[in-house]
Amino acid sequence: MRFQSGLPTKLLWLLLSGLVLISAGLYNGYPLVTPDTGTYIDSALSFNVPDDRPITYGLFILVTGFKKTLWFVTFFQSLLLAWLLLRYVEVFVPRFTHPFWRVALVALTAWTTGVSWYSSQLMPDIFTPIGLLALGLVLIRRQQSKIEVGLLLAIVLASEMMHNSNMLTYTLVILGFGGIALATRLFGKQLVRWTTWLLTTVVVLSGWLTLPAIHAHFGGEFTISRASHAFLVARLVEAGVIDKFLNENCGPANSYTLCPFRDKLPNDAIGFIWDGNGPLSKAGGWNAVREEYNLIIRQILTSPSYYPYLLSDGIQSTLRQLTHIGHGDGLQPSREDSNPYRSVQRFAPYELKKYMNSLQNRGQLSFTTLNERVYGAHLWALVALGVLLTTPLRLRLAPATIPMVVVLGLGIVCNAFVTGALANVLDRLQGRISWLLPFAALLLVAEHGSAIVQYGYQRMKQMQKEAN
């Protein structure tokens, strides 16, 4: 017998799920911040387009925070994530008819993966999985009205524009999904509609024009980022490619600002970008070197001699990023002398005492136990998905399961490539999305747990019989 509930009851369970996903912030005593948080808050107050990131999350802060409180910002993004997670439970665990069990599965996801530590941050990172989850629901297209499809596509587009890396990640996911669906005949089997994929692709690709248009509207240039050249060169510095380039090109005929530093370049991209005594700063900042850095990037990308180095580093960085799923990256104390402090003071001055009294700003957060649990959850998720997808149990799975696993899996891998190979290998950049793997496993185990146990028992008896 299916549980029937009205709209007020559904909203109550949704609010409860939202509270579950903001529990890390409640435990901390205030929404979590990173060194980048201040830039987003400042863009909300000034309407200035940051050089190195989109203005869209700043606009989200402005709209959801009402210029009064930053609590609402994290709550609204957690509420949006909660709705998507509950929709996934509804689609892939149909035997959970009562909302209690659906919310319980969301709570179990939060406990095993620590996703609340991302949804409770004043950062756009949580929109990377939010957009990917919406993308998956659109593509599987199960029991959705046109209004819901339109809402999901709007979430995809908005999430894509929240962070520069999302632009390329979503593009690779939707194109990769189309290729896989074509090769495995998902289109022919009607597991995915060709028209739905085409519409979603158009929406994703439109982000490459929509975000620059938004930036131009707010007084910035018609571009996604005015600092992309600096970050790409910084990544090439970390890869060692710039060392090779400078050794081959620095001489009397060339006067690159990097040449005097070729024997003392930083070891990592972060040091190159933010070191006040580094080559970028000494040259006048990323706006001063835009033409030179773009020239260097073009020369490297058009010279086949660099391709083996780029390919090797890209593969290594992607694989390294896939394993960097720890929590706590960037969540150090940000007190009086920090940009987040000054920004919170401007946006919500009456919350400053709560901000300063948070566990984060008292240096009392520890992620050791959580990270041990998270790594364990990922390993068990791989085992569970392997059993379900490579044994006769796969015949029991719903037709939409394969497209769902493909979308989420592509999202995890593409995010690792985009952030690892083109930006930085950081726990925060992969941890924000890697939790989707255990979530997918929990969905399938919740629906087929008894079949898994029965299959394991039968295999064990067969092995004992063969041994005897």
Automatic annotation (TrEMBL):
Q: Which residues cross the membrane?
A: 12-30, 69-88, 100-118, 124-140, 169-187, 194-214, 375-395, 402-423, 435-457
Record keywords: Repeat included? no
- Report if keyword Membrane is assigned: yes
Task: Identify the keywords attached in UniProt to this record, alphabetized.
Answer: Membrane, Transmembrane, Transmembrane helix
Which protein, by its recorded name, is this? Glycosyltransferase RgtA/B/C/D-like domain-containing protein
- Which taxonomic lineage does the organism of this UniProt entry have? Bacteria, Pseudomonadati, Bacteroidota, Cytophagia, Cytophagales
